[in-house]
Specification:
391 residues, mainly alpha, Growth Hormone, Chain: A, globular, transport, HcaT-like, cell inner membrane
């Protein structure tokens, strides 16, 4: 159906997977609220996903590098997603939801990272921008958030499993048309992974960006509840995501024009500064429509930050360990940061409200931006980047 060198299956995979991811990210908190959970309990459930990803991301990344296949690992994870999601959405008690959620997320969380890792390598093969491929994920996210939000407003949040499975099946079907990557080296061994842990620049960078990624993940988890607190509906939540991810898609699509003009850390610092402003403004609004109007800042924060961070990490990691390194990055971004953002954010929004949560996020993002600026001004990070890039 597709030629061997076609990028269409990969673009369709990113589109369909991120469409499923929209449903979980945007509406799971509202679904759990429908199930009768309070803000703190929702925080515990949302923290399960990031916790599972800490183990799942490196595990599946290692398996991908060891057996030199991204395609087969993606297919295994999508199959696991489809089977476990059916069971997960049948659970009604907090303990059952948490336990089944851990298994569900073990298969779900690596798919995005592996898809992006494959996109990065295919982009290098074709000599195109990574963002030109990755933006299809954003298009899928935006399309799903807009359509599914309106659908769930009409039929009820309890039916969110149906569109989720539809997009999941589509992701599995198109995965069979993927072209795998080939690495001319011996299969990776566990001892090789220690090279990542010993890479001081990589480890320090991951620690510093957590000041930003914690705030991003807290927003992912609670923007729906915050809009609900301000009086918005499921449809408005979907429109908020659509507006934000649309700007993200534009940032990814135009990355080939603007991205390589400066050092990636410069873009991370710019994104961090905008993150700070964004959260402080969100803390001050009192109408959900204002959130919609400000969601264009999502592309200027996450879009710019993610492209720059992913590029910087790719330059710090040996090609042999690309999948493993990328998934360790994801485990930090979406795992550790997600746990902290979900647990602390859930407690704050439950007891003090969304305004206090976003104000605290603004302070944290400001701290992170200052620290990354200092990291960039010191020769340590820049020299490591140049050294690996020239290898």
């Amino acid at each position: 159906m597709f030629s061997r060198d076609s990028l269409t299956p990969l673009k369709m995979l990113l589109f369909s997977f991120h469409a499923t991811n929209t449903i979980i990210l945007s509406y799971l908190p509202l679904y759990l609220k429908y199930k009768g959970l309070n803000g703190t309990e929702i925080g515990w459930v949302l923290a399960v996903g990031p916790l599972a990803s800490i183990f799942a991301q490196p595990f599946w990344g290692y398996m991908s590098d060891k057996y030199k296949t991204v395609k087969r690992i993606i297919q295994i994870c999508i199959m696991g997603l489809l089977v476990t999601s059916v069971i997960f959405f049948q659970m009604n008690t907090l303990l059952a939801i948490i336990l089944m959620g851990a298994i569900f997320y073990f298969f779900v969380t690596p798919i995005g990272a592996l898809g992006d890792s494959l996109a990065q390598r295919r982009a290098e093969h074709f000599g195109v921008s990574f963002g030109a491929i990755r933006w299809w994920g954003s298009v899928g996210f935006a399309t799903s958030s807009l359509i599914i939000g309106e659908v769930l407003t009409r039929v009820g949040i309890e039916y969110m499993i149906i569109p989720f499975l539809c997009f999941g099946v589509l992701a599995l079907v198109v995965s069979f048309g993927l072209t795998d990557v080939k690495v001319d080296s011996e299969p990776v061994q566990l001892r090789d992974v220690s090279a990542i842990i010993k890479n001081k620049s990589f480890v320090i960078f991951l620690l510093l960006i957590m000041f930003l990624t914690i705030t991003h993940r807290a927003n992912d988890s609670y923007i729906g509840l915050y809009i609900s607190q301000l009086g918005g509906s499921e449809g408005l939540v979907g429109f908020a995501w659509f507006t934000g991810v649309l700007t993200e898609a534009l940032v990814f699509a135009t990355a080939g024009i603007w991205f390589r003009k400066y050092h990636p850390l410069v873009f991370i610092i710019i994104a961090g500064a905008i993150y700070s402003v964004r959260w402080f403004i969100y803390a001050s609004v009192d109408n959900p429509i204002h959130i919609i109007g400000l969601q264009f800042m999502h592309g200027l924060t996450f879009g710019v930050f993610y492209l720059a961070a992913f590029n910087y990490v790719s330059r710090l990691i040996p090609k042999l360990l690309q999948s493993t390194g990328h998934l360790v990055f994801f485990a930090t971004f979406f795992g550790v940061s997600g746990i902290i953002g979900s647990l602390v954010g859930g407690s704050i929004i439950d007891s003090l409200g969304g305004e206090t949560l976003y104000y605290g996020m603004g302070l944290l993002a400001t701290t992170g931006t200052i620290l990354i600026t200092l990291y960039h001004l010191l020769p340590f990070g820049k020299e490591a980047y140049v050294h690996q890039r020239d290898q």
